[in-house]
DNA sequence: TCATGTGAAGACATTCACAGCA
DNA sequence: TGCTGTGAATGTCTTCACATGA
């Protein structure tokens, strides 16, 4: 696979979400300008991003929405379904589970984990919750490659170690702590406190500027 | 205020979090190298970032942890406490409320909002929940400048409009939809579906590479 | 005419590498 | 010696601007 920048992938995912949200799919072609407006980016940016997915407007003016959607999905998704596990059944864990479940056919949350015995060995909305000790066996058996860490900060590193040990290739970390994981494993941090602090900072800036 | 890049602010916030997590504060100086390691960045990056906050290692070798923490906080925080509102008391709304509450003295969640009458006119852990119609009056009265959108995608734009109309200067959007808001209002998107898709994509890449 | 695709410029971010200092 | 602070180099991302095509 050709290598793509982080920023580009984020936008490609955004373009796809925009197209998915157009129901029914418009029969009119969509222009780089219109997509750009919907995505809050520059039109040249859209065209440059679309270059990497190898979809070309078929000598037509603009892009054919269905074909573009197909091309985006082909690029963004793996051939097989990606197995995902959520560790920590708190508010964040539940939120992710609810948001992702059934919304993306190529992403499947196949297991939940929690330290609290009250929460484990149950089935939530079609997905089973396991004890932390079962991480290695379940991750392997269910071919899970993405782990989501939604446990308290103090437990996060230990959970990350176990996930990596069990073979996940990427971690999405919601705990407010910097994880240290081996080279080659993808890590994305989404700490909510940091997010609020950042918005607070730039809100102040915009106030000062006028 | 000097203008700082998004990336730099994110790292400054991270450095502060790292220092805050060291309790008790170490009496030894901390070096750019050690902070870099903890933050998963390059040492030169740390030094360059610290340049912008105007803290200098006082002709000492390394940085004095307490002084650095103070300098970081002075830069990151406003003088006054920043008022925050959370709209949408679902899993995400609750998660943010719980995470932020009491953890950052300069960030105060002053109001919750929800469309469901069952959830409003109650006090959750010291913070009152209001109906959506009360956004304008409450935002103004409580001097709220940051709004967090944790409602379903279909409602998000309408909520954003009301928040902006009421005077907030920044929005943190957890809904999986692109908001359109006036120039000058800061917007940060944190959609969870996009996050999982991104991690899934790069996990696959790392697998292929080896 | 009007939109795409893209070379080239420009803006921005990271890293190197070293002078200077204690 | 071993650190910081920073000029300069490098690397990455965004935007301009225009040739090309229908």
Element layout with pairings:
Two copies of one chain form a homodimer.
Chain A: H1 6-20, H2 32-39, H3 43-53, H4 65-76, E1 82-87, H5 91-100, E2 107-114, E3 122-124, E4 127-131, H6 135-141, E5 144-149, H7 153-166, E6 170-173, E7 186-189, H8 192-209
Parallel strand pairs in A: 1-2, 1-5, 2-4, 5-6, 6-7
Antiparallel strand pairs in A: 3-4
The first copy, chain A, binds a DNA duplex (22 and 22 nucleotides) through α3.
Which band does the percent of strand residues of chain A land in? 15-25%
Q: What kind of oligomer do you see?
A: homodimer
Instruction: Count every beta strand of chain A, where a strand is a DSSP E run of 2 or more residues.
Output: 7
Q: Report the uncertain regions of chain A.
A: none
Structure characteristics:
homodimer; 210 residues; alpha/beta; 7-stranded mixed beta sheet; 45% helix; DNA-binding
Description of the structure:
The structure is a homodimer of 210-residue chains. The first copy, chain A, is α/β, with parallel strands linked by helices and 210 residues long. Chain A is built from 8 helices and 7 strands. Chain A has a 7-stranded mixed beta sheet with strand order 3-4-2-1-5-6-7, sandwiched between helices. The longest helix of chain A is centred in the C-terminal third of the chain and has 18 residues. Chain A starts with 5 loop residues before the first helix and ends with a helix. At the A-B interface, helix 1, helix 5, strand 5, strand 6 and helix 8 of A face helix 1, helix 5, strand 5, strand 6 and helix 8 of B. The first copy, chain A, binds a DNA duplex (22 and 22 nucleotides) through helix 3.
């Amino acid at each position: 696979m050709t290598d793509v920048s982080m920023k580009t992938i984020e936008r490609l995912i955004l373009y796809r979400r925009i197209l998915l949200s157009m129901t029914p799919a418009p029969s009119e072609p969509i222009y780089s300008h219109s997509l750009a407006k919907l995505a809050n980016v520059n039109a040249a940016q859209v065209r440059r991003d679309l270059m990497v997915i190898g979809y070309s407007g078929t000598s037509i003016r603009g892009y054919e929405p269905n074909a573009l959607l197909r091309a985006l999905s082909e690029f963004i998704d793996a051939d097989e379904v990606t197995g995902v596990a959520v560790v920590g059944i708190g508010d964040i864990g539940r939120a992710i589970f609810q948001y992702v479940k059934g919304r993306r056919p190529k992403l499947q949350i196949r297991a939940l984990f929690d330290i609290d015995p009250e929460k484990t060995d149950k089935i939530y909305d079609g997905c089973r919750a396991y004890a932390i000790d079962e991480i290695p066996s379940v991750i392997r058996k269910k071919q899970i490659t993405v782990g989501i860490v939604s446990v308290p900060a103090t437990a996060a590193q230990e959970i990350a170690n176990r996930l990596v040990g069990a073979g996940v290739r990427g971690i999405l970390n919601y705990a407010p702590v910097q994880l240290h994981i081996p080279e080659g494993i993808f890590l994305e941090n989404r700490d909510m406190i940091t997010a609020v602090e950042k918005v607070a900072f730039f809100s102040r800036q915009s106030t000062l500027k006028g």
